[in-house]
Design brief:
globular; mainly alpha; 80% helix; 261 residues; transmembrane helix; Membrane-anchored protein
């Protein structure tokens, strides 16, 4: 009985990568793509916010279904799902702000509460929020729900600070980057709780990536560098693809390797 349970847990543990340096690099790149790709589809290709949301939600549903059916961690599938959920999270916030006129202060607070509620239910049911203990379908669903809310929250918080509070994209990126650095320092220097540090850093990478994406893509008169959403999206997608191919070949972030040791 114990051997069967252990084997089942290992199969699902393999579906979540190790949170090594490559994990955080790709995560930040994916958050940037989530911001710029949503704007590119919406404005440059004239999909409009509603149609862009429908198309990307459909693609996310397909990718997430494949991710849930997979028996182990597959780098390209996992990170494709993260990129798509990043885009959808951005679109959720944009729809609430642009189509329904809900202030960013309200969406930031609402998504904060939604994320806390997700964590509360997850912990009440499973007694852990660790990404290294996701060995049931229920925990995996909690994991992806939390990620969706982190992206929606990060978009709202990033826009609130950079645009509504007129902090600027570059200053916002530096601020959120500094907060992530502080969390990292607390973890390594003061042995802060690993699970808490992970999720705080994960949440903060979203507004960091959104601010970086806007800074690179927005025109100079809006406080950006004017690279455009198409160029920025293609640049970061190329970087993500390169890193994912590398991880596929080397399996450096594979939990399977960790379990075997």
């Amino acid at each position: 009985m114990n051997n069967t349970r252990t084997a089942a847990r290992q199969d699902l543990l393999n579906k979540v990568p190790e949170a090594i340096l490559f994990f955080w690099i790709i995560k930040i790149l994916a958050t940037t793509v989530g911001e710029t790709a949503a704007d590119f589809l919406n404005f440059n290709l004239n999909f409009g916010l509603s149609w862009t949301s429908v198309v990307m939600a459909g693609l996310l549903a397909i990718s997430l279904a494949a991710q849930l059916r997979a028996r182990r961690y597959v780098p390209w599938l996992y990170w494709l799902t993260v990129v798509l959920i990043s885009v959808v999270g951005t679109l959720i916030t944009d729809n609430l702000t642009d189509n329904f006129g809900i202030p960013l202060e309200v969406t930031t607070a609402a998504f904060s509460l939604a994320l806390m509620a997700t964590f509360a239910v997850w912990y009440a049911k499973e007694q852990t929020l660790s990404i290294h203990t996701i060995y049931t379908r229920g925990r995996e669903l909690y994991y992806w729900a939390a990620i969706l809310f982190t992206f929606a929250l990060g978009t709202a918080a990033g826009d609130l600070v950079a645009e509504r509070m007129n902090f600027g994209y570059a200053n916002s990126a530096l601020m959120f980057g500094g907060m992530i650095a502080a969390v990292t320092f607390a973890y390594y220097a003061f042995k802060a709780n690993a699970v808490l540090a992970f999720w705080i850093a994960y949440i903060l990478t979203r507004p960091l990536g959104a601010s970086c994406g806007d800074y690179l893509s927005q025109p100079a008169n809006n406080g950006g560098l004017g690279l455009g959403t198409a160029q920025t999206s293609m640049l970061f997608l190329a970087a993500i693809t390169t890193l994912v191919v590398y991880l596929t070949l080397t399996r450096k972030d594979s939990t399977e390797k960790r379990i075997a040791q």
